[in-house]
Amino acid sequence: MSMRWLLPLLVTLAACSATGGTPAFAEVDPCSLLRSGDAGGLNGTPARSDRVCDYRFDSLTVELTLLEAAFADESQGLLSGGGYGGVIAGGEGESNNRPLTRRCAESSGEVRCDAVLEVRERQLVRFEVVQRGTDPNAVGQVVQGLAAKAFERLPG
After folding, report:
1. How far is CA 126 from the centre of its chain?
2. What is the rounded CA–CA span in Å between residue 68 and residue 51?
C-alpha cells in the first residue's frame, strides 16, 4: 500500500476506535428514546425541536430534553421544590446505576412531574410529564419507567 493511502487510513481507523462507532450524545435524536407502548399507545408522530421531543401518549404527554449540564445543579432545583432522588438500574452492578431526581405535584385534576436523569457526567435527560389524575406517586412511577426506557435506548 502506498504512503499516500496509509496515512488517511490510519487517521480514519484511529477516529473509529476512539469513538467506538457509537454516536455522541450530541448526535442522539431525542425522538428515538421513547416508543409506543412505553406509556400507552403513542398518538401521532413525536414532534422534534432541536434537542427536545414532545410525545403524546394515550393518557399523558411527555417532553424529553437532552441537556448538557451539571446534574447537581438540575437536581437541586427539583429537590428544593419537594422532589426526591432515586436511581435507574444501568446494567449489572450498582456502579452502573444512574441517578434520577423527580418532583411531582397535583393541581386541578392534573399531575405534573419534572425529572432529570444523569446519563454520564454533564449529559442529562430531562422529562416533563403531564397526566390527568390526582396521584403524584403513580405518575412518578410512570416517569421512572420512561427514564429507564430512554436510558436503555441511549447509545453506549
Report:
1. 6
2. 10
